[in-house]
Specification:
Elements (H helix, E strand, L loop, with lengths): L3 E6 L6 E9 L6 E10 L2 H12 L5 H25 L7 E6 L2 E6 L6 E5 L2 H8 L3 E3 L2 H6 L8 H9 L6 E6 L2 E7 L10 E7 L1 H12 L8 H5 L4 H8 L2 H4 L13 H9 L7 H23 L5 E5 L6 H11 L4 E3 L10 H14 L7 H4 L9 E3 L15
């Protein structure tokens, strides 16, 4: 029986911890999700994480305490997934934990990216070898450290002779171009297109007193504000060449407010929400046109697949290409990223470089992730998980 890996993912939206138990086919050309679930992040903790990520003056003590508390939450999510699958922790080869990003600044003299959720706590509580801190080795090699998922998309969802694009609609939207010509080399293209659920959720929290705009129903009541959309699209990030990545530290509520203040005719809150949907659709479509010429099929994953207004605009802007969820390829759109970090854990234990310079701009492909041994960790200095 193939080894089982457990992936944990908490994204820019900071709403839940997604967990997926996965086994992989030969050469990781298929991913079989055996069990998946969502573990809620308590409202108070979510608020503190968002505040810590937004506040330039966040104290080291605050980050240290959140790191430990989040590590326990991730351990809870992992153990809940193991129980839900009817397994024993000893039947899991490794946990791959992305952690919660609190800072992502890949440019400048000292590029940096920081994810918290102490993997020592996860390994100690679960007894399962845990792999974490995936992004910083890529940054150390001169890369952006993000997005990482295109490597997994290429491994699990590419098809020889077909150029596909996979769009992850998380807090930030990112696109992976699975180039038919490059599929055998395993070098997809990919980068962060711009904001998605992160800004949509933030605007909904401010005006609806709700965590998100369910189904995009509020956005559907608004109209695209042409001047505001033009102003947003003029942001320098969108014209930057790839490789590039971004996050909440750049696209935040203050960013929305600055754009709104610069237009003469003030939009209604619903119009802003509708325009943010259009911004996401426009930047994703432009990214595929610019970097994925000849793309034949587009597949969507991430929480944004449930926003009907956003998906409708993507379908319209990407026509005549067919657009579908990754579910039709055998991977639930809600758990692709969690499955990806299960895959990254497998790669780390086997010493396989999972970094993709074609995506991040790193100087070389590197093995990603630090390994935190669980109980029964082999004595060998280069322990490898069962294949």
């Amino acid at each position: 029986m193939s080894a089982r890996y457990l992936g944990l993912m908490s994204g820019t939206s900071v709403d839940t911890v997604d967990a997926a138990i996965v086994s992989f086919g030969p050469d990781c050309r298929s991913a079989n999700v055996l069990h998946a679930g969502d573990h809620p992040i308590p409202r108070r903790l979510r608020r503190e994480l968002l505040e810590a990520a937004a506040d330039e003056q966040t104290t080291l003590a605050r980050v240290a305490h959140l790191d430990t508390e989040l590590g326990h939450l991730f351990a809870d999510a992992a153990l809940a997934a193991v129980r839900g699958a009817g397994l024993d922790p000893r039947e899991i080869a490794a946990v791959g934990s992305h952690g919660q990003t609190v800072r992502h600044e890949p440019g400048g003299r000292w590029p940096a990216t920081t994810q918290i959720g102490d993997p020592n706590v996860i390994a100690q509580r679960t007894g399962i070898t845990t792999v974490a801190d995936f992004r910083r080795r890529d940054v150390a090699a001169g890369g952006q450290g993000a997005p990482l998922a295109p490597a997994f998309h290429q491994a699990a969802m590419s098809r020889p002779g077909v150029r596909r694009a996979v769009v992850n609609l998380g807090g930030i939207a990112n696109v992976s171009v699975l180039d038919a010509a490059g599929a055998e080399r395993g070098d997809p293209l990919g980068f962060d297109c711009g904001p998605a659920n992160g800004l949509l959720d933030a605007w909904a929290r401010r005006h609806l007193d709700a965590s998100f705009d369910e189904g995009g129903s509020w956005a559907a009541k608004g109209a695209v504000h042409a001047a505001l959309l033009e102003r947003m699209l003029a942001d320098p990030y969108f014209s930057m060449p790839a490789p590039k990545s971004t996050g909440r530290g750049y696209f935040d509520e203050d960013w929305i407010d600055r754009q709104v203040r610069c237009v003469d005719e003030r939009p209604t809150p619903a119009d802003v929400q509708r325009t943010l949907c259009e911004l996401c659709a426009a930047t994703v479509a432009r990214s595929i046109e610019d970097y994925g010429g000849g793309t034949q099929e587009v597949y969507l994953c991430g929480g944004g697949v449930h926003n009907r207004t956003l998906v409708a605009r993507l379908v319209a802007r990407l026509a005549p290409r067919p657009v579908a969820r990754t579910d039709v390829l055998g991977l639930s759109a809600d758990h692709v990223e969690a499955a990806a970090f299960a895959w990254f854990a497998k790669c780390a234990l086997e010493g396989v470089p999972a970094g993709r310079p074609s995506v991040t701009g790193a100087s070389e492909a590197v093995v990603l992730g630090g390994i935190y041994p669980g109980r029964g960790w082999p004595d060998s200095p280069r322990a490898r998980a069962p294949r």
